Amino acid sequence: MSRHAFALLFVLVACVVSLEARAQELAITPPRDAQYPGVVQLHVDVSDVDRRIVRVEETLPVAQAGPLTLLYPRWLPGNHSTTGPIELLAGLQVETERAERLDWRRDAEKMHAFHVQVPAGVTSLRLRFEFISPTSADQGRQVLTQDLLGLQWEKALLYPAGHYVSRIEFQPTLRLPEAWSYATALEGAQRSGDTVRFAPVSLEHLVDSPVFAGPHYRLVELDANPKSPVRLNVFADRPQELDATTAQLEHHRRMVRETLALFGSRHYRHYDFLFGISDQFTGIGLEHHQSSENAVGLGYFTDWTASAPSRDLLPHEFVHSWNGKFRRPADLWTPSYDVPVRTSLLWVYEGMTEYWGMVLAARSGLWSHAYFRDTLAQYAASYDVGRAGRQWRNLQDTTQQPIIFYRGTQSYPSWQRAKDYYTEGALVWLDVDTKVRELTRGKRSLDDFAQAFFGVHDGQVTPQTYTFEDVVATLQSLAPYDWPAYLRARLDDHGRGAPLEGLERAGWRIVYVEEPSESVRAVDAANALDSFLFSVGLALDKSGKVAEVYWDGPAFKAGFAPGTTVIAVNGRAYSAKLLREAITAAKGDPQRRIDLLVRKGDTFETVSLDYHDGLRYPKLERIEGRDDRLSVIIKPRTGTTPDPRK
Ligand SMILES: [Zn+2]
Question: Fewer Cβ neighbours under 10 Å: the N or C end of the chain?
Fold first, then answer.
């Protein structure tokens, strides 16, 4: 062997040895289906509202001396992503029951894992740390404000590696700010002053049972059935935001009745909507088995017309108790929060929930039928005009989006694509619903699927997993057809336009008109934008700054990018009204251009839009001679249609 060859061999051996050392160092005990000995005492103090610091103290029983790994939840249920905010954990200290401080060492590769050595004779460890809740939007969700708390327990605990999270028992205690009310699906609460102690629960159940709290609170009974009551727990920035009218509450009660009529079962012992109305607390819609976290902007009850875009939120999250929590995709279920999830069936989990959320909003009167159609028109139009990205990225691939990019804005979502399995998924389920109706001459529908797939085992709370084949088998039992090919074509398609077959089979087509619908106006107002997406392919904020540019649209072709600011339209200071007028003036006149003075960074230039099709806003129009299946789908099942204007 030459000297060089020997040296090379030495390097290779050294590499192998170092990789082996790494593999040993990484050993975090995988989760086993075995009970963790003892009950973890968890004390979470959220009373420091001024500084927004959540203080955690945990007493962890330990059965033996030796290495122990503490995990901060990483793969979070409902997010389907590695969103556990490890960067917000600070001040970690580990002590024995004899108050001896133990060193901890963060894992070299898994940043949410902390290794400690338990000395002989020690029976419990005391852990102390803070969850530094975000104080501005760029740090993450604002979950603790002067008037509202949304506590997700997984942000404020560590758990021992090596066990299924369903096999680790926690006893949670919560210290609230002075005189605050709270709501949660947790049971057995005992309040003493501002401290609430709950009955012991599994870690899985605890993480599935967040708490909302605040000084301004109203409890509304939505379903008084003592066997399975449903409650709306409203918290708001100001007491007047709690002023719901009797008619508004009746729509919400109706929504619960319609949902129960749809599924024909309940998989909760009691259900709590945790509902925040705030312009400080960050908006949310997050499903749990026996509750949901929901937050919207001010005016939900007090500015009823403006709040329409958020009124399918509660039905959507309620549906998840059946679709997502009780019936759960098999590849999404994992035994612990450090095991990666797979998201292949999110087009069922979220797509069908989006569809039912909209349908139930219409059936219950939370939306008028016209508003439902206008919203559906917007969804369909956003694919018809604004999803060039379907050419490279199919619906199936978008189901991995939460893992790729969970939160934040994209430059070109029309090309990059986002969590499109929600809205494109809803169009696919409209397609399936109308196909089942067509095949069975109206005798069967997706309502029957809901009963057969989710309505089984009334009263069972334990999740039941499913696969693509299970979905197909249930469809097959309702209406024999080549469902695997039908669904795969829609999931794997690379067509450019919108999946509109369902809409057409429902008896409606999408058309573009010059006046925005109530739904377009309400969505624009809620986002503080003026949308010209379906005409020149631009959405702008009130100052003229471009928020979105449709890929391959007229503005894109003229060189617009998000962040460009329109300063003037045809020589006059920008306003949305002026741009509307300029688009209308150039309609059908190829000589007439739309000249826009724009600012890109610190340079100014004039961009000329060669666009002559006028203003375009989506709307649904009846297809003469076709059955109006859409109106049948949104017809209430419990009594007559209530008036949504009240
Ligand atoms: Zn959802």
Answer: N
Q: Output the CA 500–ligand 1 centroid distance in Å.
A: 22
Q: Quote the CA–CA distance of 336 and 12 in Å, as a whole number.
A: 37
Give me the sheet containing 66-71, strands edge to edge: 104-106, 113-118, 66-71, 159-160
Contact between residue 355 and residue 430 where contact means Cβ atoms under 8 Å apart? yes
Which residues are found with C-beta within 5 Å of the ion, ligand 1?
Answer: 350, 353
Ligand 1 centre to CA of 631 (Å) is 24
286 SS3 class: strand
The tokens describing 397, both together, are: 């691939």
- Bridge partner residues of 182 (DSSP): 213
**pLDDT tens digits for 339-391?**
999 999 999 999 999 999 999 999 999 999 999 999 999 999 999 999 999 99
| DSSP conformation letters of 47-106 | EETTTTEEEEEEEEE-SSSEEEEEE---SBTTTTBS---GGGEEEEEEEETT--EE-EEE
Q: Which has the higher per-residue pLDDT, 632 or 496?
A: 632
pTM above the 0.90 mark?
yes
Residue with tokens 């929930």: 353
Looking at 357-361, 382-386, 474-478, 546-550, which range is the least confident one?
382-386
Centre of ligand 1 from the C-alpha of residue 316, in Å:
6
**Kind of pairing between the strands at 327-329 and 464-466:** parallel
CA of 361 to the centre of ligand 1 (A): 14
Q: Which amino acid is at 373?
A: R
Question: What is the CA(37)–ligand 1 centre distance, in A?
Answer: 35
Looking at this protein, which amino acid is placed at residue 464?
A: Q
SS3 at position 26: coil
